[in-house]
Design goal:
The protein is mainly beta. It has one domain: Sandwich (Immunoglobulin-like). 7% of the residues lie in helices and 32% in strands. It contains two helices and eleven strands, in the order H-H-E-E-E-E-E-E-E-E-E-E-E. A five-stranded mixed sheet has the order 5-11-10-7-8, with no helix packed on it. Strands 4-3-6-9 form a four-stranded mixed sheet. Strands 1-2 form a two-stranded antiparallel ribbon. Strand 1 and strand 2 form a beta hairpin. The longest helix has 7 residues. The protein starts with a helix and ends with a strand. The structure holds copper (II) ion. Copper (II) ion binds next to loops. The site of copper (II) ion has 7 residues, from loops.
Length: 189
């Protein structure tokens, strides 16, 4: 499975390093750094405020696009990933920070996960998107918080929400992105 391949390489902390702005030798020559599975992560052109409310969950959004001209457009089968760290967090106020280090435009939507369900099982409609019914929040506003038109390549967006214990699914819902692997379970305990 693409999702397993993309999310299995959990030994990195690309977003944390990039967000801090002190990630050692700068890949300034290319504007990219190597990520897992052959992904080439872009450097971010903006960052979050230094202090964010609640517990922080970093979500890395990436893809193997070739140019920003694609916007959010992606065919089925394109290689892309959504990776949250940590993926288990204590209940209460949580700020999810979504960093788009890919080429395409992405977003982060937080959905409830039904009892017994696992991430990745939603069935996209004809438009390539899954239902956002029950959405608990969204980070899709380049270089700022909340809902917008999408997180453009190389930018960050964030959203602060309060979650009770339960199972949730973090997704990107640009057409075909969910089917292409942009989903991960978030457990709140
Ligand atoms: Cu996406």
């Amino acid at each position: 499975m693409l999702a397993a391949a993309g999310c299995g390489s959990v030994g990195y902390s690309a977003s944390a390093g990039m967000m801090g702005g002190s990630s050692g030798p700068s890949p300034a020559a290319t504007g990219m750094s190597s990520g897992p599975g052959g992904y080439h992560f872009r450097r971010l052109s903006c960052s979050t405020p230094p202090s964010l409310p609640g517990k922080r969950v970093d979500v890395t959004l990436a893809d193997m696009g070739m140019t920003q001209m694609m916007g959010g457009t992606a065919p089925r089968g394109a290689l892309m990933m959504l990776h949250a760290t940590p993926d288990i967090v204590a209940a209460g106020q949580i700020t999810l920070v979504a960093s788009n280090v890919g080429w395409r435009t992405h977003e982060l939507v937080i959905l409830p996960l039904a009892a017994g369900a696992t991430a990745g099982l939603r069935v996209p409609g004809g438009d390539g998107k899954v239902s956002e019914t029950g959405s608990l929040g969204e980070a899709s506003n380049s270089c700022t918080n909340g809902t917008g038109a999408g997180i453009t390549a190389g930018t960050v967006s964030w959203v602060t929400i309060t979650l009770p214990p339960g199972h949730y699914e973090l997704i990107c819902n640009f057409p075909n992105h969910y089917a292409d692997g942009m989903h991960q379970e978030l457990d709140v305990i």
